[in-house]
Design brief:
This protein has 173 residues and is α+β, with helices and mostly antiparallel strands. It folds into 2 domains: 46 residues, no CATH class; 98 residues, no CATH class. Helices cover 18% and strands 12% of the residues. It contains 3 helices and 8 strands; from the N terminus they run βααβαββββββ. The chain is globular, with a radius of gyration of 20 Å.
């Protein structure tokens, strides 16, 4: 049901309250509300209603045969304004499309405890991504980490780049 599968079943509104009810960690839901949540969840299991995770499919099939990076989303510079979200970096293996110091969760290996994607959202790569107010952003950036982007430039010319960042401690020089 999560981002580590090629297809993710969307959790309907109230799903976490239903789980809390069932586990005894939350209030008992009225029968009608519980059935409504389950019905919406059942509708979301239809393939057309799933969220497709191209990065997971790419990792499972293309990346095992190729050490190249490909765009996660098309990025085209033109005469207008182009926005490239940091979370839309190229798809590819660690050290090919990105580098993250703790790219996977190794908490079952004795003496090693890394987190992988600490925000557990948007992509299945090891890059730390959070969601806040519907927006996804990169966080927990450590020295030496990097992301690669493929950008198509249709018209020759000079372009101005503006970086919008959010950080409590870091600066872009």
């Amino acid at each position: 049901m999560n981002l580590n599968n090629p297809f993710e079943i969307k959790k309907p509104e109230g799903y976490n309250r239903l789980l809390a009810d069932w586990s005894g960690k939350g209030p008992k839901l009225p029968k009608e509300e519980a059935w409504d949540i389950l019905d919406k969840w059942l509708q979301n299991t239809a393939l057309d209603n799933n969220i497709f995770h191209a990065d997971v499919a790419d990792a499972m099939f293309r990346q095992v045969q190729s050490n190249t990076a490909i765009p996660f989303k098309p990025h085209e510079l033109n005469t207008g304004t182009t926005t490239i979200n940091a979370v839309d970096f190229d798809m590819g293996a660690q050290r090919i499309a990105y580098f993250d110091t703790d790219t996977a969760s190794y908490h079952y290996t004795p003496g090693i405890n890394t987190a992988g994607n600490r925000g557990w959202t948007y992509r299945n790569d090891g890059v730390d991504i959070k969601q806040e107010n519907g927006d996804h952003y990169i966080f927990h950036i450590e020295d030496g980490e990097w992301l690669q982007y493929t950008v198509s430039v249709k018209n020759e010319g000079h372009y101005q780049f503006i970086f919008r960042t959010r950080s409590d401690s870091a600066r872009v020089p």
